[in-house]
Amino acid sequence: MSKRILVIGAGFAGMWSALGAARLLDQAGRTDVEVVLIAPEPELHVRPRLYEHNPEGMKASLQDIFQATGVAFIQGLVEHIDVTNQQVNIAGTGLDTSRRSISYDRLVLAAGSRLNCPPIPGLAEHAFNVDQIADAAKLETHIHGLASRAESAGRNTVVVAGAGFTGIETAAEMPARLREVLGQDAAVRVIMIERNTDVGPDLGAGPRPVITQALAELGVTWKLGSGAAGIDAKGVTLENGEYIEADTVIWTAGARASKLTAQIPAQRDNFGRLHVDRNLKVNGLDTVYATGDCAYAATDEDGNYAMMSCQHAMNLGRSAGHNVAADLIGEEPIPYSQPQYVTCLDLGPWGAVYTEGWDRQVKLAGAEAKALKTKINTEWIYPPSGDRAEVFALADPSRIVVA
């Protein structure tokens, strides 16, 4: 009787989980175990690039890779996970309104994360974001439409709520994007607002001088110590009572793990991520693994934990895939380990900044770092070709990708 590994999600972690499992099964000569991946589309959405131009082009088909490696794909949206009976309920997408259930012997939850949107008045109605392709496309359409509006301070102003990684990358793009639409001589304003007292509070002090220099030279300003209290069609009210007139408010303040993690009866962190062991099995459960943005996973023995980023998601996926297959067929697991940590932050036309280590020591800045960031964004994080041998070589969990 055949067995089934079920992977939920086709993001960086989900894709590599399925390929990592298929790789080990192929090496072991096991044809009695199938790897099945469920997602709304057989596509990898290149989410780290959605602050750039043309977000609707930021996706890559996975059909050839799945066919080459024997991964079965089910198009649908997982609505419910029944851990006790080891099955999930799936709803169709688009015109497909059907529902079905599928059982599993082992489950890998790789459903990613979503932008955290707290109940701030007007946030849902009036703010834009770059969290998903449709969201980023909506923002791009809006920006192009600003040229048809009467000139005003609000029309020419973008407020970016959140001065973290995504907020900085988005803000750095905005002055040039606005001038492309409104004219090179337009008096544009791009303002970041941040509740913390520093720009890039989670990035630490190391790269901050480079970041603030770049933003200042691009014409981006910031207001610290007060977040958004309310948003309307004409601007944003800060927690300190200040009102900023702006036709464009972009929300970037944090992410939370997929809501599916709440259906798993196990411990979660403040971001909704499931606590896992070094093999990425959910603590206290024998048949469920979590990976990518759904996993609270130690990267080393020094107390560091994976960030919600594609850098960690790719390696978490490889490890989860290998280990879930190893668990099912009685092979040795390879504990997840990713002691090397880097950041490469895009700073728009100014360049980028590249750091190494958890203390984020700056190694490259400006044009040289931008060249590295471009290679990461356009080559390293994309799926491999459909060549089976190449895919399985890249799915090896001992291959640690630092990008």
TrEMBL record:
<comment type="similarity">
    <text>Belongs to the NADH dehydrogenase family.</text>
</comment>
<keyword id="KW-0560">Oxidoreductase</keyword>
<feature type="domain" description="FAD/NAD(P)-binding">
    <location>
        <begin position="4"/>
        <end position="315"/>
    </location>
</feature>
<dbReference type="Pfam" id="PF07992">
    <property type="entry name" value="Pyr_redox_2"/>
</dbReference>
<dbReference type="InterPro" id="IPR036188">
    <property type="entry name" value="FAD/NAD-bd_sf"/>
</dbReference>
<keyword id="KW-0274">FAD</keyword>
<dbReference type="InterPro" id="IPR051169">
    <property type="entry name" value="NADH-Q_oxidoreductase"/>
</dbReference>
<dbReference type="GO" id="GO:0019646">
    <property type="term" value="P:aerobic electron transport chain"/>
</dbReference>
<dbReference type="InterPro" id="IPR023753">
    <property type="entry name" value="FAD/NAD-binding_dom"/>
</dbReference>
<dbReference type="GO" id="GO:0003955">
    <property type="term" value="F:NAD(P)H dehydrogenase (quinone) activity"/>
</dbReference>
<keyword id="KW-0285">Flavoprotein</keyword>
<protein>
    <submittedName>
        <fullName>NADH dehydrogenase</fullName>
    </submittedName>
</protein>
